[in-house]
Amino acid sequence: MASSGDSKTDPIIHIDAPPVAAGPTGPADMNGYGAGASVRREADSLGAVCVPGDAYWGAHTQRAIGNFPVTGVKVGDFPDLVRSLALVKHAAALANRRLGLLPPVKADAIAAACVMIHTGDRLHDQFVVDVVQGGAGTSTNMNANEVIANLALELMGRGRGAYACLHPNDDVNMSQSTNDAYPTAVRLALIAATRPLLRAIDDLCYALKAKAVAFSDVLKIGRTQLQDAVPMTLGQEFDGWSATLREDIGRLREAVVLFHEVNLGATAIGTGLTADPRYASLAVEELARLSGEPMTPAANLVEATSDMGAFVLFSGVLKRLAVKLSKICNDLRLLSSGPRAGFNEITLPAVQAGSSIMPGKINPVIPEMVNQVAYLVIGADLTVTMCAEGGQLQLNAFEPTIAWSLLSSLRHLTAAIETLRLRCVEGIEANREHCRAGVDNAIGLVTALGPALGYEAASRIAKRALRENRRVADIVLEEGLMSPEALAEALRAEVMTAPMRLKLARSQQEPVLDERME
Questions:
Q1: 247 Cβ contact partners less than 8 Å away, ≥ 6 residues apart
Q2: DSSP SS3 for 430
């Protein structure tokens, strides 16, 4: 398919040269390259194609650029995916060399090109196809094959497009199909992209825990269904948020383990057609060594080629995390509402002016941003679900959108969580006096007196306090239901915010604290 044979320098033509025979994409093959731009001619099974002279991609990629002008998001915008593609191609080249299928000079050139892309971020801007594409990722796979082939050719002293010396399909893609190389690269990319998210969650949990300690003595009223409930500390509230997010660190680690199992060597549908029987195990062995990840071959390559279950499960964990984050941010917005006519229990850092018309207004913009990121992730989960369900028979053609959805969710969650920690959580302050006043005036205090007063008496006190707009403690003392000392003991913060073993004095029916329940 090559255009320039063994020559060391490609012949450069110009866009205003005699026209190349038009394939289905016709003159649009150049995608906006103006008159006079240097190009080279390449060809594929559909005919000749004009490719920019300085491009490392080839004919297949050039057609894909014209075929999928969809999102404006390129494969190269996800460095983890580009690096993972290079790792897969590197592992394949080494395995094929070990099997005697790929000459050492070609294998070494391919390996060197892959190392440059993986370790040095070289040529990431050459991965230009849109992330959403038909063909189950073929355009992405060929983009990688062509870029690696042309870089390897340069390392061999040849010109770009000299595919008679080293071919994108015959050499770079040897023993592979898009249907095993691309899914393997996607799994590697997801493993890599999960690491910064795990660090971000851990840092946020630590920040929330630090606030839990700082606010451990701030007594406030808890609420159920937005109605006053029973006292708690503000520290307990923050500690609960830290704990629920830390759970998801474990869930993410469990889910990402599924990506260590890959179908490399499956080729088109899992039967391994065109691959040496020894290739799959050797390629995965090399991939594990190069990536530092414990990669293993799938037990059933036919199943692994068609099934998207690991992606669905992982996406569900991301959705779970997004739901929790959004709920926490809803709470932050509610607890900081006011400052005069809202809850006003906490103050969020003022990061920007809140209104173009209302002077002095400050909005909870960081939690609001996290809410919206959460909604994007939740929507992406549905997208992954439908893409996984939509596959037919031996292959799922919609894996590119699965990859885009998951990699985007990981990127957005990581950025949102880091921003939430740095620009919101670490600067939160407690409005201590306001919190305490809410407890003193709360009807829910009567719940703490239930063991001493009994449910019916406590209910009567609650109704009277609400009707007369009075404090529960004042009514209890007025009616002589408890002594001042017993009442004060029952209303201590330590008593109201933790389990305590309680004995009732038979004569006065007053609570006597025995010991803290562990």
A1: none
A2: strand
Distance CA 315, CA 300 (A): 23
- Give, for all 518 residues of the chain, the pLDDT tens digit: 444 444 343 433 333 333 333 333 343 344 444 445 699 999 988 999 999 999 999 999 999 999 999 999 999 999 999 999 999 999 999 999 999 999 999 999 999 999 999 998 789 999 999 999 999 999 999 999 999 999 999 999 999 999 999 999 999 999 999 999 999 999 999 999 999 999 999 999 999 999 999 999 999 999 999 998 889 999 999 999 999 999 999 999 999 999 999 999 999 999 999 999 999 999 999 999 999 999 999 999 999 999 999 999 999 999 999 999 999 999 999 999 988 899 999 999 998 786 767 777 888 899 999 999 999 999 999 999 999 999 999 999 999 999 999 999 999 999 999 999 999 999 999 999 999 998 888 887 788 888 888 888 888 988 998 898 888 888 888 888 888 888 888 888 777 777 766 555 444 445 555 544 43
CA atoms of 219 and 231, how far apart (whole Å)? 7
Domains of the chain by start residue, with CATH = 13-174 (1.10.275.10), 180-267+289-432 (1.20.200.10), 443-516 (1.10.40.30)
Cis peptide preceding 339, ω within 30 of 0: yes
CB under 8 A, 24+ apart: contacts of 429-433:
429/346, 429/347, 430/214, 430/215, 430/218, 430/234, 430/345, 430/346, 430/347, 431/344, 431/345, 431/346, 431/347, 432/218
Give start and end residues of each alpha helix (H) in 336-398.
365-389
Is residue 384 within 8 Å of residue 408, measured between CB atoms? no
Place of tokens 């449910």: 455
Per annotation, catalytic residue among 38, 355, 459, 483: 355
pTM for this prediction: 0.86
CA distances from 469 to 92, 214, 412, 459 (A): 77, 33, 48, 15
**How many CA atoms, within 13 angstroms, populate the side-chain half-sphere of residue 167?**
14
Number of helices and strands in the chain (H, E): 18, 11
CA distances from 91 to 115, 141, 268, 454 (A): 11, 15, 18, 73
> How far is residue 46's CA from residue 62's CA, in Å, rounded to a whole number?
12
Around Cβ 367, how many Cβ atoms within 10 Å?
Answer: 23
355 in active site:
yes
Q: Which residue has the tokens 């290079």?
A: 86
